[in-house]
Amino acid sequence: MTPLTTKAPRHAFLVVLHDVAPPFAIQIEKIVAAMQPLIGSRLGAAVVPSWHGRTLTAADDGFAGFVQASFDEILLHGYEHRRTGGAGLVSMLTGRSDEFNGLSAAEAATRLRCGQQILQERFGRRAEGFIAPTYQRGVLDAPLLAAEGMRFHV
Questions:
Q1: pTM for the complete prediction?
Q2: Gap between the Cα atoms of 60 and 94, Å rounded
């Protein structure tokens, strides 16, 4: 993790589960069930608030409740987890999962802001941490992430 401020984190977590979104609810429940006896809720959920354009809504509140009860930390893991324009080598190797590559700072900030808004609506809080899909942050630097409420990025 790379801190964006000098404020100490509330706690450290041991495992971050990526791609936390309703299409993977069954798999997520199985992973959590296997991990909880070992580490409890010391899990970080890397939530994608609009997986491939399917935005979390009130219909997903059961899923959101499960995530809140099962994970100590909620991280923003992109907005849609897909690159919508252009393509490069990382895009070709990851099925276009490098969402932030090729975006302008304004476009990237808009995706962060929209993601944070959805997390606020569905989870009652914004994410304090960010993990970019395929670890590709593109133009997202520490000041831009901090401006959208991120204290750290992975």
A1: 0.88
A2: 27
Distance CA 132, CA 7 (A): 22
Closest CA to 132 of 91, 98, 89: 98
Q: Minimal CA–CA distance to 145: which of 134, 131, 135, 133? A: 131
Cβ contacts of 66 within 8 Å, gap of 6 or more: 25, 28, 29
Distance CA 115, CA 125 (A): 11
Question: What are 142's two structure tokens?
Answer: 């520490």
- Short-list 1, 58, 47, CA closest to 24: 47
C-alpha Rg value of the chain to the nearest Å: 15
| pLDDT at residue 10, as a whole number | 57
Cα–Cα distances in angstroms (integers) from residue 150 to residues 23, 60, 61, 85, 127, in the given order: 25, 24, 24, 25, 7
Round the average pLDDT of the chain to a whole number and report it. 90
Q: Is the pLDDT of residue 84 over 60?
A: yes
Q: Using alpha carbons only, what angle is made at residue 136 by residues 130 and 140, rounded to the nearest 5 degrees?
A: 60
Give the domain ranges of the chain: 2-153
Does the domain at residues 2-153 carry the CATH identifier 1.10.10.60?
no
